[in-house]
Amino acid sequence: MDAQKLTSLGGSLLVPNVQELAKKTITFVPPRYLRPDQQDPPLLNINSTISFSSIHVPLIDFNCLVSGDSMDSELDNCTLLAKIWASSSLINHGVSSSLVEKVKVEIQEFFNLPLEEKNRFFQEPGDVEGYGQAFVVSEEQKHC
Question: Which terminus of the chain has fewer CB atoms gathered within 10 Å of its CB, N or C?
Fold first, then answer.
């Protein structure tokens, strides 16, 4: 990030690393990860299967975002998706599928590194770039 930031995006409290928590034998879910306002997901056993064929992830068409004719309606679509969904899929972006796959592999390799190695890339105080969780502003804040 540029040394002279135009705005401060704030910082984040340090919270336990989820991957490290998963390695431990714990007898309870830490309260910060409980969402009492949401229905519990169904429990699955090792032999359970989930069908994703009925799940439809919203699409954002990059060509529509840069096209004068449909740009406004696609921007409205993006705004609506951001309010309702946690993610969407960007299509017609022009990035080769081989590069997308290479980035996925690199990301997985990074997250497979030991915590000490990942922490070399930890967020600087007051910054949102880097490894870690951004925008954790209170001890009561829930994590998804």
Answer: C
Across residues 94-98, what is the average pLDDT? 94
124 within 8 A of 112, measured Cβ to Cβ: no
pTM equals 0.55
Q: Label each residue of 93-143 as H, E or C.
A: CCCCHHHHHHHHHHHHHHHCCCHHHHHHHECCCCCCCCECCCCCCCCCCCC
Q: Cα torsion for 86, 91, 95, 98, to the nearest 10°?
A: 80
Give the count of beta carbons closer than 10 Å to the beta carbon of residue 113. 13
**Residues 115, 121: contact at Cβ < 8 Å?**
no
29-38 per-residue burial string, b: 16 or more CB within 10 A, e: under 16: eeeeeeeeee
**What are 4-21's pLDDT values in tens digits?**
444 555 666 777 777 788
